[in-house]
């Protein structure tokens, strides 16, 4: 692991003050280093290309037509073997301030999804979206198109999840709080108090949205960051434990093994 960087890099593809960007995939096959995009969501739609896309510790084969959804702060990298074609849509949550339901639907979206070869409507919508973005149409127009794109993507068969909208809204709020506070707050009760609901209600919301309870969602957030640091950095286990706010390395090792059946060192060695 000596060649790994000491920290996961950040890439900011949105200029300061920008809240939405629609671009075409770069026609290159050079592998990218693991990185994360802080502060904005990313939707990727590929019509051509081949290779691999690594998100966290999950490796996906690039088999267009297909797409990917990256939530805030997810670590990913590309290794294309064939030049990709398609679109990338980057956006901050504020662009959907007039469409709160669309924002909630994002958290019900899978990391990867298939596009229909028989129904080209998603790519046609993207063609118009990109053209309007290039023409610098008003943000209200572009936000409406993003709203339509999200709903169109959610309607793809493997993205459909039958979760009541009100529960999904509350789950979105909970996930946002977890992302912001998972290093300090570790219990369902702590988040339920902030949300002014009972921990029982919070667990019901999480069960409806994901099939897991609130503590599982919190642990998953810690586990994902643990895997990111083990996979994409050269930090020692003790350094990672400190960074994730564990009292000591042994507690971190116990946590990681309970979630994965492997110690952090064993997990890193398997990579």
Automatic annotation (TrEMBL):
SMART domains found in the cross-reference section = HTH_ARAC
A molecular function (GO) term: sequence-specific DNA binding
Q: Domain of life, per the record?
A: Bacteria
Q: Is the keyword Flavoprotein assigned to this protein?
A: no
Q: Where is the HTH araC/xylS-type domain?
A: 172-270
Q: Does the keyword DNA-binding apply?
A: yes
The cross-references to InterPro entries, in alphabetical order and at most eight, read: AraC-bd, Homeodomain-like_sf, HTH_AraC, RmlC-like_jellyroll, RmlC_Cupin_sf
The protein's name: AraC-type DNA-binding protein
Source species taxonomy: Bacteria, Pseudomonadati, Bacteroidota, Cytophagia, Cytophagales
């Amino acid at each position: 692991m000596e060649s790994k960087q000491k920290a996961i890099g950040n890439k900011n593809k949105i200029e300061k003050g920008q809240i939405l960007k629609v671009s075409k995939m770069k026609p290159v096959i050079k592998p990218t280093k693991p990185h994360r995009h802080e502060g904005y969501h990313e939707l990727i739609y590929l019509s051509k290309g081949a290779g691999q896309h690594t998100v966290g510790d999950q490796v996906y084969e690039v088999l267009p037509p297909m797409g990917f959804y990256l939530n805030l702060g997810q670590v990913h990298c590309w290794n294309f073997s064939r030049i990709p074609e398609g679109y990338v849509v980057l956006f901050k949550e504020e662009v959907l301030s007039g469409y709160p339901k669309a924002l909630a639907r994002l958290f019900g979206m899978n990391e990867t999804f298939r596009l229909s070869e028989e129904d080209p409507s998603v790519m046609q919508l993207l063609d118009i979206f990109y053209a309007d973005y290039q023409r610098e149409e008003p943000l209200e127009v572009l936000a409406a198109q993003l709203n339509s794109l999200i709903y169109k993507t959610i309607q793809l068969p493997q993205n459909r999840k039958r979760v009541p909208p009100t529960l999904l809204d509350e789950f979105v709020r909970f996930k946002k709080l977890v992302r912001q506070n998972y290093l300090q707050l570790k219990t369902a009760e702590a988040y339920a108090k902030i949300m002014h609901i009972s921990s029982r209600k919070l667990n019901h919301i999480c069960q409806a949205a994901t099939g897991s309870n609130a503590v599982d969602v919190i642990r998953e957030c810690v586990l994902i960051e643990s895997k990111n640091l083990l996979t994409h950095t050269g930090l020692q286990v003790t350094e990672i434990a400190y960074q994730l706010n564990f009292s000591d390395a042994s507690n971190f090792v116990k946590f990681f093994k309970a979630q994965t059946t492997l110690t952090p060192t064993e997990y890193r060695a398997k990579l």
